[in-house]
Each structure stands twice: as C-alpha cells, then as structure tokens.
Write a structure and sequence with these properties.
Pfam families (chain B): Myotub-related, PH-GRAM_MTMR6-like
Keywords (chain B): Coiled coil, Hydrolase, Lipid metabolism
Helix content of chain B: 40-55%
Shape of chain B: globular
Largest sheet of chain A: 5 strands, mixed
Radius of gyration of chain B: 31 Å
Protein name (chain B): Myotubularin related protein 6
Number of domains of chain B: 2
Structural class of chain A: alpha/beta
Strand order of the largest sheet of chain B: 4-3-2-1-7-6-5
Radius of gyration of chain A: 26 Å
Helix content of chain A: 40-55%
GO molecular function (chain B): phosphatidylinositol-3,5-bisphosphate phosphatase activity; phosphatidylinositol-3-phosphate phosphatase activity
Oligomer: heterodimer
Strand content of chain A: 5-15%
InterPro entries (chain B): MTMR6_PH-GRAM (IPR035998), Myotubularin (IPR030564), Myotubularin-like_Pase_dom (IPR010569), PH-GRAM_MTMR6-9 (IPR048994), PH-like_dom_sf (IPR011993), Prot-tyrosine_phosphatase-like (IPR029021), Tyr_Pase_AS (IPR016130), Tyr_Pase_cat (IPR003595)
C-alpha cells in the first residue's frame, strides 16, 4: 500500500471532544490507509470510523485556547468598573470610539464626570498625538488619582488651551485640590521641546499644579545602554575589573534606579502627600507608562496578583499605546540600529524584578512570568503584543485572528514556572530601597545563557516542594 | 571602669547614615564596662561592644552639638550628636581607652560568664577534636603518621603540638626542613583525601639565604610526593602573585624562593639573562614543569604553580577603599561601581577562590598532592587550604564540619587572629581582613550552590561577629602556644557550643545532604558571579536590605510542616483512643459530649498557628518599617511638595497672558 508511507504515527492516545455538554471520550486513535478510527476500548459502542476521503479540513489548534479569549480576560471597561465602585466622580467616555481623537488611545477612557466629550476633543488638540489627560489609577485609601497624558503643545509662544486647563481644574476639584505634574524630562529638555512646539504646563495657567522634573532616559541612549550591557554580559574574556567598569559604563542600573525613584516619588505623592499626579514626558507612550505602571505596582496590592499584573500590562502598556512593534522589533543584537528601538518595556520588567527581590513574598508572579512576558514582547506566537496601538490592532483584527498570551499563561501547567510559591498577600505599599547597594543585575535575564542555571533552578524546585508539601498538610 | 567618667548622656541624637537631610533619632547614651548602649525614644536598643569599635572620631563642633562617629569592626557605623562638648569628650576618651586594651587579660572573654558550670565549659572546649578529625580522614595510615617532633613547640612555635607528616620523614629531615623554612613552618599535612590518596600540605616560604639548597627540605618534599602512590608528580603552589616575585628577583633580596632542586648553577644562568625578565620567568616555569634542559630527572616530579593573591597590606587598603565608597551619602550607581572596581576587593576575592579551585582540581582530576605556601604560611595559605578542602569534602559544608575547618586550618595552624583583627592595641599594619575574605569566599559559594551548605549566611555573619568580639576564647591569641600560656581553656569559654545551641537560626532550608562523601563543588568564577556582599558590609543598615526574607519564611514553613505532621499523629492517636473507648464502654451522652468539646479546642490552635506563621513576626515588623517612606532617600523629595513657589511664576504668568 503506497498510502502507508504517508503514515508516520499509526496510533496514539487521544481524547475526543464530541461537543459542548457531553463528556469527552478517551481512546486510541488509529490511522489506516483509508480510515481514521477512534476506539474507546473493548466493545464500547461509540467507536468512531471516519473515511479519510470524508475529511474536509484538518486544523491544528493550540491546546485549550480559543480565539477571542483576550477580550473576556481583561475587558477594557473592567478598570472603570473598579473605579466606579469607589466613586462616581469619573465617567467612561467614548469620545475616542473611532480612534479619531487620539490614534494611540483605546476607545474607552476614564475622565472626570463634569467634562464633556467636546472639551476632551479640544484638549486632545492641545496635546501631542491627541493624548489628553486620562485617569490611570484611583488610590482607594485617600481618593487621590494618577493621570497620564502627552506634553502640551505650548510652543515657543506659550500657547494656552482653556479646555485643557478646565480638564485639569476638574481633576483637582475631585482629588483634593493639590496636584503635581511629574515631567519625565529635564527642565532643559522642556525648553528645547518648546522650540519644536512642545512644552509643559505653565504654572500660571494651571493653578494648584506644581511641577517636578525627573529626567528619565529613553530612545537611543536607553537602547545603547541595553546593547552595551548585553555585550558586557556575553563577553567571555572579561576580567573582574573590566566587568565592573563595563557594568558601570553601560549605565543600565542607573536607569533602573532613576525609574524606580520617579515611580516611588509619584506613589509617595499620592499616598503620603495626598496630591493628584499627572505624569507625562513628550509623547507619553514610554517613560510616562514606566512611571504610572510602577507606581501602581507599589501602591496597589491588586496589581501584584497574577491576573492583576496581567491587566496592568494590558491597560498601562498595551492599550495605553506603547508602540511595541517599534520598540521591540530587534532587541540588542541588531546590526542596523532602528530609530524607534528602545527597551522601555524591558526596563519596566527589570524594575519589577528589583521589587520582587526586595519584597520576595509580595508578588504573586515569579521571575518566570517576567521572563515569559519579556520573550513574548519581542517575539511571540500570540497577538497580545502585536502592533503599536489599539487602533492598529483593531484594523488588523488582532483580537479575532490571534490567540491571547494571557489565556496561555493562565493554564495550570504553567503554574510552577510563572508563579511565586511563597506569595503572601501584602496589603501595604511596597517602598523599595533605591540605593545602589540594593539594586542588582537581573542575572536571570541578562546572564541567562552565559551561566549554568541548574543550582538556582534546583533550589527553586525545592522551594516549590516545601510549599506544596505545606499545602498538602493544610488540607489534611 | 577607671576609664569611664560619664556613664549616661541624655538627648543624644543618632543620625541616619545615608540620609542627606540629617534625619535622626533622639535618645539616651549609656556607657558600661563592656558596651556602649543607645536607647532611643521608641525604646529600641543599640548595643555596641567596646571590642567591636575600630575607630572613634570626634568631628568639629556644630550648632546641634558635638558629632561623634564610631566605626566598628563588624562594619557598623554610628553617628551620634552629643549636645554638650564636655560629655562628648569624656565619652570619646573613654571609648578610645576601652576599645584598645593592652593586655589579653582585659579582654571581654576573661570576664564573660555565660552561666555554664565547669564541666560544661570543659565539654565546650572538647567539642572540636582535631585528632578525631584526622582519624575521619583516615590519618594516621600507611603513608602518614603523627609526629611528636613539635610536642613542646621546640621546632615551630606557631604550629600545633600534633603534626602529621609522611611516614618516610624522620626527625632529622623535619628539623632540617624547618630550619630552611621561614619561622620554622616546615611542610605538614593539612588534609588527606582518602579517595585519591592525595594530600594537601602547607608550609612557609623557604629561606634560600646563601645557598638555594637544603637537602632535608628536598627529602621532605620527596617524602610527601612518595606518600601519594597514585601520582608520581606533585604541585607546589605559591600563592603570591608573580609580579611580586619578579620584583624581588630583580632586587635580589634575601628572601627565599620555592626552588627545590634548582642548583646555584642555574641561578647563575638566570643572572646572565637578567635583562629579560619575561624570558627568565618562562625559563623558570619550563624548568619547573620538567621541561628544562638540566637535571630533568630531579624536576620531573614537581610542578610549580603561582596564583596571585596579594599580601595583607594590599587587602587592608582595598577594604578601606571599599568601605569609603559604600559609606558615601547619596551614592550614585556609577560611583558605586567605579568605587567597587577601584577598591579591587572583588578581584582579590576571585583570586582566592581561583587558587582554591586550582587546588581542588589538582587533587580530584590528577590525584596529585599539593604543597601550599605563601610567605609565612598563615594567611593566604590558610585561605587556600581551607577553601580547597571546602570544595572537596562535603563534611565541611555542615555546621559542625565548618567549625572543625576553622579550628584546623585557621586556629591551630596559627593564623594570627589577635594581630589580624587588632584585638589588642598593636601595630595597625598587622591588621588585615584575611579571615573576612575567607568568609566572603564561602558566602559566594553558598550563593552559587544554594543546596550544598547546611549553614546559611547568618552563620557566617555570626562567626565574623565573634572573631572580633573577644567574647569567647577561640580566636584570642596568635597561635596555640600563646593560647595555652594564656590558659584560655580554663579562663574563657568556647564559641562553638553556643552556636550549636542556636543551630536552628543557622540552618539552610534548602540544604540537601549529598549521599557521597566527596561531592566536589566546581564554582564558576566568571566575573559576574562576584557580587558585593551587602549583608556583610551593610549588615546594620537596615534600609538597604530586602524588606521580606525568604529564608525565614521557608524555615517557618519547614517548622510548620513538622508541627502539622506531629499534630496529625497526635490526632490519629487520639482517634484510636476514642475508638477503643467506644468499643470498651457503652456509648453515653457524656462521651459524645467529650468528643465535641475536644474538637473546637483543637481547631483554633491550628488556625492560630497558621495565622501566626504566615508572616513571620520579624518580617511583619520589617514590612511595616519598609512601608515607611521616611526610610528611603526619595522621601527627601517630599520637600518639593511643600516648597513655596519661586518668584518667577508671576513673570511667567504675565508672559503667558500676553501671548494668549
């Protein structure tokens, strides 16, 4: 029989899923030259015989994943519902439903309740890329809020925009009366931005808002730093002293320290000083998101759970319009240095890792989760990190045509790899130490392939064993 | 006591070491005969042992008072501000005298009384028995014997009484060899590897003097080599760096050279090519490896190996530089790394570990015996021998084994603890962190092999604490003879039983004992495996540490597992009892009642246990403390929030108006 040459595996254990509501049938799957048959065992009535000519289409599906899951996992308006439970001062606006007010924002945005959509639209025209200030975090304990936006288009002749001022005034009225604009650029960089039409909030135009500059590096310098670090980590010929000076020279840990400091500052402002925070840099899609997402992780215990962290990533990075496609196209080894390449998201993951080192019990996810997210951000069989914004994702029909990373990560077989076995919910804020002695190089990522991970891996396994033994004991 | 003038000062401020805005705690300072005690307004106590104080400094008077900075040998640095200058001066003078004792008898160990009776004290000292340790290594045996040559410390004062030497080495050989070696420290056995029949021996440098030969010393090495039937060659490891050797070759100083069979003729040959240092070095190396052109038969059994560990003075300066850097306020990441690099500290740590790895490999892969020496054979040699055996023999990775290792390679072979740690007021040039380096190397190994060690970081830190504390007799004095003269065994207590009593604290929860005796650790010494040991050098700067500890949690979980298992057993036995009672007696209402009354009483105790251990007590405190932004540097930006607006605003407002 010439057909038999085509058969590589004659039989296999298989599970037949007849349809919803019926129990699955376990049996042996056999392929013959003309038939496919599934037998559940001796004399069972439900044997399936399928003439091969009868097969119309064969499709291989990733296990237990279904298209379109993503929308159900972290629905965009979930955040608003959470806020609405606490206060009715904020509303869900659909001003961006067709992506024509702001191309990089999602359709649903949370804004002060007294501000109409036309005000938002006008404010958007005053902000670079249309990214007007929107709510990104509501601090439950004292009702202060964190917003993010892009820089105002103040320009050299210091334009103003009444609607934008009205919007921020409304924010202050809702959240305690004092505000702080955390600009992630230096005062000098703001001056330069004015020449090209950008700028920052003039103090006179926004009474009650103070300004603080915490310059954070992004773009090319950050990418260079990353490239140099990776080079240092993979150079086998380094001596002790050269290693330390290379580590120093790449300045990566300086960036980590600066980022954590800025995030702590924003978090502290909300938690301790009771001020509202508006974070922006230039475009509001890179360093801005770094600060807002880290500050939430520091303050909000919900963000430190497995699903909370996923929805934080979904909300503050993916839907907030971090251009993943541009930023994470090539990573560190690219010959040509693409203009938009920058490891901003990786810097965020590194900061989270530093938090996890200082508060090893407080995060539900482990290092494996951060590594998995890092890998998928750069190359992934899933659609979660595709494209640069929600608009592009909508146009490419990413949600309906690809699988979601989250549903794959949430499968129980991934548990040991991704979860932190010693997680203990901690209702308090995590204030990390940002002294250089407290920061470490993320060996699990940067030295992943250069040093043998076995002993650490074994210790991790043992940790799991100790903890699961414990759980077994509890149930007894 | 006569040194103490002021015993109590109130309204003293304790400054936060890393705060740039001079945050402080106010409290009362007490001065006792043994400790300096600070109690802050929250009743938190800070105890500082006088012997731990490395330096006291009185800074220039400020408006707040007189600053007093105390640096400790355990790397604690405290910064007090005493309101009145006279008090400050009194305390300063008292501390200067109390921290620098001239006599051993004034040290804390001689007055410390842990409420042990005499037999317990004797038992404590007998806990570690080195003769038993050598028996564990299967020594004496066919090739190695116990020598009584040094019974009365006649041959070498800094060696212990009991020495193990090759069977072939007779007394004249020993005496002759000891005369050829600096301080009489001739080659003796430090560790015998049963499986490979190879030995680690140690000695000091040879004194070449007028002639570069000493037949007895040559016989001695021959005997060591012959005592190992499994390999025909042996290694001689000089732990000093090559460039230093070079420099004293050039200056032709009267310091020895490990030449064993290099005749004076070769030395003359060397001088001819003196201009070319490098060529000469290569020639030496070649000859040493048996590739030379003369006396090949004589050299074929000895291979020379240089490993570059710097001397005690370089190490001391290196640590000073390191402490200077990490004590800086408002340190930036780049200053930290460049400081770490320029101190060279991690480079030295790597050099020590590399040497130990070479030693372990020579024994395991080549079954070759190794003779280790440096200059005097009590600093670098101790480091390399002890670390090498730690890599080879899993026994030393247990708590008891580590104590034995320290007793054997450090205490008994005469590492000058009192000089190196500055126990007494002496030559500051003799002080050097050699033992600290050893502990740091061990810590690096525990980091690389989290499951290989029975003890944890806290154990190493505790030992470091007591090496300097002078609270126990173990580390006092510079050699065994001195310790016997001081009658330490009668007058002081041994540290080890106290550490064993507290064993729980020092256990590594991940420890998985290996089934075999000889599981060799092969650490990777690529540079990025060397990290700054924060918990040692910032042990007392709590704000720099992780706010939650995995170790404690796991220890608790382990305990809890045991506890639960115990409870299960108890409950099972109770059920059995109940059952037998049921069958024995008629089921009455009372007995039913009794069962019901039992169960709720048990349940809460279980629940309570769980609640309690979920967040270990200390951690809970830490978390709350950690949640205080005041601990961290960014909190100082908080001033930004409350600062008044600069005057520029109105101007800007005006401009904005005009343009709008």
């Amino acid at each position: 029989m010439e057909f038999s040459e085509l058969i590589r595996t004659g039989r296999a254990e298989a599970l037949l899923l007849p349809g919803p509501g019926q129990p699955p049938v376990r049996g042996t799957l056999c392929i013959t030259s003309h038939h496919l048959l599934l037998s559940a065992g001796h004399g069972s009535p439900g044997d399936l015989w399928l003439l091969l000519r009868n097969v119309d289409a064969v499709e291989k599906r990733p296990q237990s994943l279904r298209l379109g899951d993503a929308a159900n996992l972290h629905p965009p308006d979930h955040f608003y519902q959470q806020v609405a439970l606490q206060t009715d001062a904020w509303r869900l606006s659909a001003v961006n439903r067709d992506f024509d007010v702001c191309a990089s924002y999602p359709p649903a945005l949370v804004v002060p309740v007294g501000i109409g959509d036309e005000v938002l639209a006008r404010s958007a025209r005053f902000r670079q890329g249309g990214r007007f200030p929107v709510l990104c975090y509501y601090h439950t304990t004292n009702g202060t809020v964190m917003l993010r936006s892009s820089q105002p288009l103040q320009g050299a002749n210091r334009r103003r925009c009444a609607e934008d001022e009205e919007l921020l005034r409304a924010v202050l009225a809702l959240g305690g009366g004092r505000g702080l604009v955390l600009d992630t650029r230096s005062a000098q960089a703001v001056q330069q931005a004015r020449i090209t039409g950008g700028g920052t909030e003039a103090k006179a135009a926004y009474p009650g808002w103070k300004r603080l500059h915490r310059p954070l590096e992004r773009g090319r310098p950050l990418q260079d730093s990353f490239v140099r670090l990776v080079e240092a980590c993979t150079d086998p010929s380094l001596s002790m002293d050269r290693w330390l000076s290379r580590l120093d020279g790449c300045r990566w840990l300086t960036h980590v320290k600066e980022t954590l400091t800025a995030a702590c500052l924003a978090a502290q402002g909300m938690d301790r000083e009771g001020v509202c925070i508006l974070v922006h840099g230039a475009e509001g899609t890179d360093t801005t998101l770094l600060v807002t997402s880290l500050a939430q992780l520091i303050l909000d215990p919900k963000c430190r759970t497995m699903s909370g962290f996923q929805s934080l990533l979904e909300r503050e990075w993916i839907q907030a319009g971090h251009p993943f496609q541009q930023r994470c196209a090539h990573s560190a080894y690219a010959q040509a240095r693409p203009k938009h390449e920058a490891p901003v998201f990786l810097l965020f993951l590194d900061c989270v890792w530093q938090l996890s080192r200082q508060f090893p019990l407080s995060l539900e996810f482990g290092e494996g989760m951060l590594l998995a997210v890092f890998e998928h951000a750069y190359a992934s069989p899933f659609g979660t990190f595709l494209c640069n914004s929600e608009k592009e994702r909508y146009l490419c029909e990413v949600k309906t045509k690809t699988h979601s990373l989250w549903s794959s990560l949430n499968q129980s077989k991934e548990r040991r790899r991704l979860r932190n076995p010693i997680y203990t919910p901690n209702p308090l804020a995590l204030w990390p130490s940002v002294e250089p002695q407290s920061l470490q190089l993320w060996a699990g990522l940067f030295l992943r392939w250069t040093r043998p991970p076995e002993p650490a891996q074994e210790a991790w396994e043992q940790l799991w064993r100790i903890v699961t033994e414990q759980e077994g004991g509890d149930t007894l | 006591m006569e040194h103490i003038r002021t015993t109590k000062v109130e309204q003293v401020k304790l400054l936060d070491r890393f705060s740039t805005s001079n945050k402080s705690l106010t409290g009362t300072l007490y001065l006792t005969a043994t400790h300096l005690l600070f109690i802050d307004s929250l009743q938190k106590e800070t105890w500082i042992l006088h012997h731990h104080i490395a330096a006291v400094e009185k800074l220039a008077l400020t408006t707040a008072g007189c600053p007093l900075v105390i640096q400790c040998k355990n790397f604690r640095i405290v910064h007090f501000i005493v309101p009145r200058e006279r008090d400050c001066h009194d305390i300063y003078n008292s501390l200067l005298q109390l921290s620098r004792q001239a006599k051993y008898e004034d040290l804390y160990a001689f007055s410390y009384n842990p409420k042990q009776n005499e037999s317990e004290q004797i038992q404590g000292w007998q806990l570690i028995d080195l003769a038993e340790e050598y028996r564990r290594m299967d020594v004496p045996n066919l090739n190695w014997k116990l020598s009584d040559a040094n019974r009365d410390y006649k041959i070498c004062e800094t060696y212990p009484r009991d020495l193990y030497v090759p069977r072939a080495a007779n007394k004249p050989t020993i005496v002759g060899s000891s005369k050829f070696r600096s301080k009489g420290r001739f080659p003796v056995l430090s560790y015998y590897h049963q499986d490979k029949q190879a030995a680690i021996c140690r000695c000091s440098q040879p004194l070449s003097g007028f002639s570069a030969r000493c037949l007895e010393d040559e016989h001695m090495l021959q005997a060591i080599n012959k005592a190992n039937p499994s390999n025909r060659y042996m290694y001689v490891m000089d732990t000093r760096p090559k460039h230093r050797m070079q420099s004293w070759w050039a200056s032709k100083k009267d310091i020895g050279r490990i030449v064993v069979r290099i005749s004076s003729k070769i030395w003359r040959d060397e001088k001819i090519r003196e201009s070319d240092e490098k060529a000469r070095l290569n020639a030496m190396a070649n000859r040493a490896a048996g590739k030379g052109y003369e006396n090949e038969d004589n050299y074929s059994n000895i291979r020379f190996q240089f490993v570059g560990i710097e001397n005690i003075h370089v190490m001391r300066t290196s640590l000073q530089k390191l402490l200077e850097v990490n004590g800086t306020k408002g340190l930036s990441v780049s200053d930290f790394f460049s400081g770490l690099e320029s101190s060279g500290w991690l480079r030295h740590i790597k050099a020590v570990l590399d040497a130990a790895i070479f030693l372990a490999k020579a024994i395991v892969n080549e079954s070759a015996s190794v003779l280790v020496h440096c200059s005097d054979g009590w600093d670098r040699t101790s480091q390399v021998c002890s670390l090498g055996t730690l890599l080879l023999d899993s026994y030393y990775r247990t708590i008891k084994g580590f104590m034995v290792l320290i007793e054997k390679d450090w205490i008994s072979f005469g590492h000058k603890f009192s000089d190196r740690c500055g126990h007494l007021d002496g030559d500051p040039k003799e002080v050097s962190p050699v033992f600290t380096q050893f502990l740091e190397c061990v810590w690096h190994l525990t980091e690389q092999f989290p499951q290989a060690f029975e003890y944890n970081e806290a154990f190493l830190l505790q030992i470091h604490e007591h090496v300097h504390s002078c609270q126990f007799g173990n580390f006092l004095g510079n050699c065994q003879k001195e310790r016997e003269d001081l009658k330490l065994r009668e007058k002081t207590y041994s540290l080890w039983p106290f550490l064993l009593d507290d064993q729980e604290k020092y256990l590594n929860p991940f420890y998985t004992p290996s089934s075999q005796k000889f599981t060799v650790l092969e650490p990777n010494t690529v540079p990025f495996n060397f990290k700054f040991w924060r918990n040692m050098y910032h042990q007392f700067d709590r704000t720099l540490h992780p706010r939650q500890s995995v170790f404690k949690l796991i220890m608790n979980k382990n305990d809890q597992n045991k506890q639960l298992e115990k409870e299960i057993k108890e409950l099972e036995s109770k059920i059995k009892q109940q059952k037998t009672r049921h069958t024995d007696t008629v089921l009455t209402k009372e007995s039913l009642h009794c069962i019901h009354a039992d169960s709720p009483a048990l349940k809460p105790s279980l629940c309570f246990k769980k609640e309690q251990t979920l967040l270990p007590v200390n951690d809970a405190i830490r978390t709350i403390e950690g949640s205080n932004t005041a601990d961290n540097r960014y909190s100082e930006y908080a001033e930004e929030f409350s600062k008044t607006e600069p005057a520029v605003v109105s101007l800007e407002y005006g401009v904005a108006r005009m343009t709008c």
